[in-house]
Amino acid sequence: MPALRTVDEAVEWLRKHFRAEEARGLDAVYEIELTGPGGGRLGLAIRGERARIESGPAADAGVRLRLPARDYFGILEGTENADLLYMAGRLEIDGDLSLAVKLRTLFRPRA
Asked: Considering the domain boundaries, does residue 111 fall inside one?
C-alpha cells in the first residue's frame, strides 16, 4: 500500500477500515485537524455501527484532535504511535479524552 499523502486518501482509508462491531453503542463526533503538507480537516460522526467520514470540519465535535498530517498518516500506516505523539506534544486533544482513546479501536490497524 502506498503512503497516504492527502486528507482524501485518509478518508478513504478510514472508510475501508472502519470496525462497526467496535462502535456498537457509541455516539460521538470527531474532528481531526491535520497541519502542514497534505493537511486539512476530517470529520467523523460515529452513530452506533454507522460512520460518516468526510473531509472538512465536523459540526458539534465532542473531540478535536490536531497534529501534523505526516504524523496522522503514520498512525494510520502503523509507523507512528499516537501515545508517543501525545506525550511529545505533537498531538493535541480537546474534549473527551476517553472518546479520543476509543477512536483507535474503531479502525483496523494496518496488517
From this structure: no
Per-residue pLDDT of the chain (111 residues; tens, 9 = 90+): 568 999 999 999 999 999 999 999 999 999 999 999 999 999 999 999 999 999 999 989 999 999 999 999 999 999 999 999 999 999 999 999 999 999 999 998 765
Contacts 24+ apart (CB under 8 A), 23-27: 23/48, 23/49, 23/50, 23/51, 23/106, 24/48, 24/49, 26/102, 26/106
**The domain spanning residue 38 has which CATH number?**
3.30.1050.10
